[in-house]
Specification:
The chain is α+β, with helices and mostly antiparallel strands. The protein contains 18 helices and 20 strands. The chain is 40% helix and 20% strand.
Amino acid sequence: MIERVLVIGAGMAGLWTSLALAPTGRTVVVLERDPPPPAGGPDEAFAHWTRRGVGHLRHSHAFLARLRLIIRDEHPQLLEELLAAGCRDLGFEGGLTEIHKRTYTPAPVDRDLAVLTSRRTTLELILRRYVERQANISVRSSAFVKDLLVTPGAVPRVAGLRIEADGAVEELSADLVVDAAGRTSGAIEQLREAGAGVPEETEDCGILYFTRHYRLRPGQAEPERGKAPVTGDLEYLKFGVFPGDNGCFSITLCVPQVEEELRKRVVDPAVFDAACAQLPGLASWIEPERSEPISRVFGMGDLHSRWRDLAPNGRAAVLGFFPVGDSLVRSNPLYGRGCSFAAVEAHLLRDALQMFADPAARLEAYQRRVTAELRPFYDAMRDADRSAIRRARQALSPGHQPSLRSRVRKSFLEDGVAIAVRSDVELFRAALRGFHMLEDPQAWLKRPKNLAKVLGYWARGRERNAEAYRPKAGPEREEMLNGLGLSPQLDIERLLAQPDAVS
């Protein structure tokens, strides 16, 4: 019997799920609440595509190597189409420092350590058109999923969906329902009401996102990559430049929640650009003679990490239902892993469905494999977020003195790990494998040979390692806020007025 799969949502998670499942012979119907993309190319999609269900559609995006390799190895035609549309491969060699280049010898693995980058609308436009041409897949736009069709029982079973389309309500039956509707999906809440026990952990990421897009003027090129960093963390502000397609690029500024004055004002385009102009690595990108803005400043808040377990204690909590993407695991977009998480989950789901016919065994295998593959990255992200929240609050505490343990850890990371990675090509490769989700993010540093190298650089001291340090990423907090016409003191006073303000 050919199984019928209903996929809720035609965002990244839904599209990757369709591409993973359709070649197995299943019939896949994708239900998308928003209208289809406009006719035309990337610029039309960026300007006119309405996607109420994707709040981060016009924020910076890039596909890590884990996802790019899936595209290269399983969908080479898709990779050709993405590149033809202007998407760009940022390869390993582009990240080498001057120290690396003196001894660098290319290795076969370097071809795998590339980032595919462009505007999110371009990535999704090309991916969707590719999906719509595949056998066994149909996409219905403007189809709003009202609720799940649930058969009660000791373990509830999902048998289909109730949707509204063209002003009419209809019921669709299915062998499998995949929830790829993202963070706003209400499916899990409905299942809990039906008796499904689905535990979850959730934490505030502690930041807000702000992105603006620009286009290079005719005849202009991107600035040469110098020592001034194009990404950085000033504790009161994180920033990054994202090269895009067709002469476009975006800049994202991430502001801690406790920096209320900055986050309220940076949504103003003039303030956003003024902040960028104070950052040495960004200033040359937005010079008026080089580029012009092509968008307003897009803000994004309510950022939480979330991990759901559909098979607590190894037992399926529901049958016939599989969440993918933010419906299952939600991550801080700062780390750029959301699209890769979704694609990996889609392929793990494919494998679980192929391995087992029993509905419970399928979900249990899926959840088990997702945990094994993705939990290390989730935990590392959550720990980094907790640390960043703590440091942002401490930065607003007058006279705060970090503990000896904190100072040693900071020195190890900044004077040991970072310097070693910027000095040694092999360590750079190893660290990138973790960054790109090709292995456990902590694995490279646990290897005795790599740790010994890092400790060696750390022991050399700042003077002998001076060449490997990056220039200062930007001004101190007070200088930045004063330069923007904001008060550096107001948020300090607000924080100190709170009980247990700094911990």
